[in-house]
Amino acid sequence: MFNLFNPDYMKYGLQESLPETGGGGGEPETPAAVTEETIDKMISGAVDTLMKNITVAIDNRIKEMPISVIPSQKDVDNEKKGGFADFGEFTQNAIKFQQNLRLEPEKKALLETRIGEDGGLLIPEEFSNRLFSLAEEKSALWKRITMIPVSGNSVRMPVMSDYSHTSDTYFGGVVNYWTEEGGTVTLTTPKFDAISLRLKDNLTLIPITTDLLQDSPVSLAPLMESIASNSLSLAMDNVFINGDGVGKPLGIMNANCKIAIAAEDEQDATTIVAENIMKMFARFNMRYLGNAIWLGNQTIMPTLQTINIASGTAGTLLYMPPQGLAAAPYGTLYGRPLQYTEFCKRLGTEGDLILVDPTQYLGIEKGASTAWSKEVYFIYDKELLKLKYRVDGQMWHNKVFTPANGDTLSPVTTIATRS
């Protein structure tokens, strides 16, 4: 609290508020009485001075603070679209820009900020992300695998070595003991494997004639979205199934943990029989059944629809409903969905039918981007849409699993080639 009778009041410049008391060498005069008016002047002066000091301090502090403006959602959306309403508008203006045709100054300025290092136009974030999200949705496997975004170029993932449950050993070294009271046990340390993944570049290149760009710019946007997303989804399905790991991800068909079921004695080369499917299912690790799917080539469809499980003198169709060809097939085997893809092998070859848990496939990704350029195909009068996707992957499991009792198991089973 401010003390009116504290000698420090002098520093607030309040001495002018006090009445003069005289001076000189004579006897001191009796000081004038402090009136209510005098006190009000003292308080008013102190408050004014204090407020001025506070105001100056606040102003100085504000000047030192960085300016932070929170953009509206509309501004954020507009930035992600590069200032264009939709992919169609961007395409139209990109064509004119690449052909040095007349453009609105505002659109030209927006496109000039999107020129990449190689001279191509970087497609705005929202339109680019849509191409990749459409591709992932159309893929049989891409949307189902375990994908981890990374910031670097490679990653080393520790994996529990849970390959055998013999001798009461679990999760690569956790041992379960039974002892009498006061008994002792041997200390063990769980073992870990490691999976090394390093990003590989996938480039999807879509050349388009200049005539098509100029003749149908409005309808080009959905056409480009369809071509780009379908092409990329097919490429990802192919590599996740068949990739050899050389400059590309390692596919499930080349995984170390895959189990191929032998063909039945005297089985015809171009067939799948009920015993094949039963044995595939029996060697699949039931721990992963909840996420398991079947992958098959369409060439297996006729033989699947005629597979019969004998029951006395009659039989039961394995895949078709009781109404036979009059109704749609179930679309499942042992309750798990069947997904057809052209990247499974033809009937009779290993990989024509696969049972797999896609979530046990580990992938890493980084830096999906798209660009538009005319430089590559300039002499052919074409322009180019380029999609770049950095990715790697393989199955988490390096070996088959040996249970406490029974045959080895795996999250990937196939039928060996029938010959």
State the gist of this model.
The chain has 419 residues and is of the alpha+beta class. It contains 9 helices and 17 strands.
Protein architecture, described:
The chain folds into two domains: 16-21 and 34-59; 73-178 and 187-419, no CATH class. With 419 residues, the chain is α+β, with helices and mostly antiparallel strands. Mean pLDDT is 79; it is low at 1-19. Strand 4 and strand 5 (174-175) form a beta hairpin. 28% of the residues lie in helices and 22% in strands. The strands form five sheets. Strands 8-17-14-9-13-12 form a six-stranded mixed sheet. The chain has nine helices and 17 strands. It is flat. The protein starts with 35 loop residues before the first helix and ends with a strand.
